[in-house]
Amino acid sequence: MADELVHYEVQRGIATITLDSPHNRNALSAQLRRELRDHLTAAAKDDQVRVVVLTHTGSVFCSGMDLKEAAGASAGDQGVNEFPAILEQLWTSPKPVVAALRGPARAGGVGIVAACDISIAANEATFAFSEVRIGVVPAVISVTVLPRLLPRQAHELFLTGEAFNAQRAVEIGLLNSAVPVDGVDAEVRRYTDMLALGAPNALAATKKMLQQERSTNLGEVFADMLKLSARHFGGPEGQEGITAFKEKRKPSWVPAED
């Protein structure tokens, strides 16, 4: 649709979700939030989708909440109330999500970057937790950002609102990779090709395992992890993977090459 702000396309098992609202720097307007949620839901439900790539048009990945919509609205009517659901969709998606940035991210946009499993940016991209500079608190995005960042860096950047570059974003854990802008597509493809080698249920279970809190009782942790491991060793994917290894072929879930 010509008037949509978020596009959705599936090719080779890759669902590409593109933010396309350059007139307001891909701000999280009500329409963009709604369409993004719908496309994330579609990707999660589609058995043909193996990996999700979240990208953008225009010079900015995402500038955060739409401040024009926020102006004059009461606390109960603020669009930010809908934002946790989007971050949770990204964080808990059973399909790995890769963010591809060719430009800056600010505030809520950085929360989205942190919520994705793998995030890649052009060297020219910059980031900032700019909330305090307009009198608000980076509260919602802290849920996805703080698990990624080194604590000392988080205090500095949340409190000062200072912009930082892609290389520093890699160093503090926000990004996986920073590359020249003309190398973003190749870097995304490198990651999606690797992710597609993983079995769908195993990927979903591994992602869930990585995010769960663990008991301080080492025996309990080993018992839980043993159950998880044995279940997948004995499950259909595990048996197919073992058989494929023995037969020196690719498992059935690996997409056919172009």
TrEMBL record:
Instruction: Please give one Pfam family short name.
Output: ECH_1
Q: What SUPFAM superfamilies does UniProt report for this protein, alphabetically?
A: ClpP/crotonase
Q: Which InterPro entries match?
A: ClpP/crotonase-like_dom_sf, Enoyl-CoA_hydra/iso, Enoyl-CoA_hydra_C, Enoyl-CoA_Hydratase/Isomerase
For this protein, the record's CDD domains field holds: crotonase-like
| Top-level taxonomic group | Bacteria
Family, as annotated: Belongs to the enoyl-CoA hydratase/isomerase family.
What is the protein name stated in its UniProt record? Answer: Enoyl-CoA hydratase-related protein
UniProt source species? Lentzea miocenica
